[in-house]
Predict the 3D structure of the following.
Amino acid sequence: MTAAPILETTDLRKYFPITKGLAFSRVRGWIKAVDGVNFDISPGETFSLVGESGCGKTTTARIILRLEPPTSGAVRFRGQDIYALSGEELKAYRSSVQAVFQDPWSSMNPRMRIGPMVAEPLKYSSTMSPGDMKSRVAELLEQVGLEPAQANLYPHEFSGGQRQRIAVARALALKPSLVVLDEPVSALDVSIRAQIMNLLKDLQGQYGLSYLLIAHHLATVRYMSHRIAVMYVGKIVEMAETEELFSRPVHPYTQALISAALPARPGVERAEIILRGTVPSPVDLPPGCRFHPRCPQAHVRCSQGEPELREVSPGHYVCCDHC
Amino acid sequence: MAVGTQVWGKAKVRMRGGLATVRRAPRLPLAIALGFVLVAVFGDLLAPHSPFEAIVSARLQPPFWMDKGSLGHPLGLDTVGRDVLSRIILGARVSLAAAVASILLGGGVGVALGLVSGYYRGWVDALVMRITDGMLSLPLLLLALLFAVALGPSFTNLIFVLALVMWARFARLVRGEVLSWREKDFVALARVAGAPPLAIMWRHLFPNILNSLVVLATLQVGWVIIVEASLSFLGAGIPPPTPSWGSMVAEGRSYANTAWWISVFPGIAIVLVVMSLNLLGDWLRDTLDPRQRQA
């Protein structure tokens, strides 16, 4: 690899307890939302997590944002465990890692004007004076294609696309080095999506930002990312550079996922791989490889022993012992 | 078609904001509530007599339209010869002061506890909510009476007692609202921005529950007036000779057959004001409900 990674996760796990009973509840089982996830992100890179809903992408993002402590494993930012930070170091982490979320309605306080909202990270994680904050907000709004005068408006006075621009402006306020983009365009109209994606790419070129992109839409991911990891029920099943993954998918799940996406030109003949059955519950995982009950290439041995990620070609990792 | 136009028209009126909304309030309750506040504030200018001045020789004088009544004392005189109208006017001040002070105190405590327990959850939440359940399952009027008797009748004690039995309603309401608002992405983003918990509660959660608080506070004013009147009626509220609607009803009780006006007029004042405030509260709740606003 090139430079030292900016962010690194090691064997990240998040299990949510399922409890029963009201007063003296006892744990009946665990939802294994994230079950041993390893990846790293380099400076200036867009790293994507793709997968179906419920596969643990968003939980991974929340752990990285320090919103949800992991059950085990660690997230290291520039070599430091982020859950061991406090005081000034925590403040520094907060100002280096920001986020844009999916829902442009839920991610804005309906009672707060745009100006203070964009300035919020500056207020709590920088030492900027109120006057400087105002001019920084104006600068940020211009950068994402809005008028500085719009800082006095309330969120309901904007469209979904404009709201996502505002969210991007806010995430950039502190000049972070990593921005977590959790489905940043999936709530938007197709015509607006391209605008936001281009805005994000431009800003990345301008500031050398790293992105952790969470998405389920393959075209978005392909357009935006340098490297991609495919997740299936809490685990990464395949990880490779974008073109490598799309042209030579190795894992049967990745192959099925890519074959299910619509081609850019209609009418193109393609073989679609239809998977049997449904996604297993993250409470009761099948033994062995968690994909084997649905795998078109499953061997008997797949139900014994869980496979680990292994490198099949430089930078291309697959979690399957038989492909 | 006609229905569609009507709905659109309604939406337009709502969007015009504050003043237009107030104009749509139910007229009579709004007028009575405003009148009550004005009378409470400017009572000493409006009252024709001192509420303490007793004309013993003319005691139990009836209202002006009855035999022996006079326009000098339009609602008659009470058992010791004090002007009933003036006492009702100055009683309004006691009622309003008790309502405002106890709601600020009890509401403040309840809001703070509700925010903390809804935001932090865990054992704090469990503790606060079990105490709240306990408070709400007790007959509050009896509890207030118990405290009032134990502490002795005085205005300060009354405020304290009212706040004590009221905070739980605010805590319960605020906690419930916080539970839904805290899951919004903007709260997570505020944490990512480095905002401390107090800032999140004050800047993000509190402004969003203000609507419900206004509604509850309005409804509580009516409730406080009733409780204050009940406690004063039972002799555990405002100590005499300070005029209070509750104690006035109590004083006239034994004369109900011969001098009904002593009890009936303050009784009518209680009913009118409490009913108006409840109607206004209901209207506010319907108007501020976001689900109704979207329609």
